[in-house]
Design brief:
single chain, 152 residues, mainly alpha, 80% helix, rod-shaped
């Protein structure tokens, strides 16, 4: 009888050890998935922060655009190529908006030669409207990131 129990004990221990190893593998897989989600979420939050700054017209210094690029640098490894294209478009448009804001002169300031007030105001309006659209009207940013951040 003891010999039968000894014979059954070894396979039982092997089955239990295999089950524990499988559970640990599943837990590690879930942990990696959550870490990737958190990293993706941080990139998305940086995008929303930049879109809000630009929609509010607060983009005055070039370092904000550089900081945005640094904060979203790992997006190449976390998302598909369409997100990198979107981030590049945000940076390009933010640069155009910042440039127009810097060139803008109101009635109290001297006007430099070749200054085209209407062109600059139109550029500010065009870029600001694009940033607002990304956030509110069509929720473009939310839709672009949705497939990567949807956990349902």
């Amino acid at each position: 009888m003891v010999a039968v129990f000894n014979a059954l004990l070894t396979p039982l221990i092997a089955i239990i050890a295999t089950y524990i190893a499988w559970q640990q593998w599943q837990a590690n897989k879930l942990k990696l998935k959550m870490e990737r989600y958190e990293r993706r979420l941080r990139v998305y939050q940086e995008v929303i922060k930049m879109l809000k700054q630009c929609a509010d017209g607060e983009i005055r210094v070039f370092s904000a655009i550089v900081d945005f690029g640094a904060a979203t640098a790992e997006a190449d490894f976390l998302f598909g190529p369409e997100i990198r294209q979107y981030l590049d478009e945000i940076s390009t448009r933010a640069s155009k908006l910042r440039s127009a804001n810097v060139r803008f002169k109101d009635f109290t300031q001297p006007v430099p030669p070749g200054y085209d007030h209407e062109e600059i105001v139109n550029e500010i309006g065009t870029q600001t409207a694009w940033f607002v659209e990304q956030l509110v009207e069509k929720s473009v940013a939310k839709n672009k990131f949705g497939k990567y951040l949807n956990i349902s």
